[in-house]
Amino acid sequence: MHFYRCWLENPEANRLLHHFQQRLRWQQPQIRMFGKLIKIPRMQAWYGEAEARYRYSGLWLEPIPWEPELLALQQRLRVDTGSCFNAVLANWYRNGNDSMGWHSDDEPELGVEPAIASINLGASRRFQMRHRNGAYKFELELSHGSLLLMTGSTQHHWQHAIPKQKKVTDPRINLTFRSIRGDENHGK
Length: 188
Ligand SMILES: O=C(O)CCC(=O)C(=O)O
Ligand SMILES: [Mn+2]
Hints:
binds 2-oxoglutaric acid, 3 helices, about 190 residues, disordered C terminus, binds manganese (II) ion, 4-stranded antiparallel β-sheet, about 15% helix, Jelly Rolls, alpha+beta, 6-stranded antiparallel β-sheet
């Protein structure tokens, strides 16, 4: 795992935060939890190449074709990380009441040791990580303009979460770039 605190300069990060808040096609899908349908506690949008269909918390997401600023970030990530991502899940936490529960990004569509590049814009939020064996837990502060790169066996051994932070009033956008394998590769 690598963390780059100042991957984007402040003026660019500010511009992108406003751009994505206004321009992405945000939705608040429902998921089934304990037999009930509930809205996820944040807004979400899935962009990328046509083959990048993704199952996330039991939802099938059809990608919206790349938006120019998302594509520009994808190209920058290819240069900086060497990974070629074909899709991005955008999460908009409107304030500290929005959150994401414990999970790992280990869906079969992502392959065995997925690289995931996570860009942060807006309010700083706590990113918690816990080892599956229960022995270790730590957290990072994901600040405006930072990049978190998760690679190798991270998703296999660790879960992560964004807890609610009642005192946070500002919005945050997180972009997790992923590489989804097409249907023909599933199960191999
Ligand atoms: O908002 C974040 O930093 C985490 C997002 C995340 O874990 C995900 O989209 O799978
Ligand atoms: Mn995740």
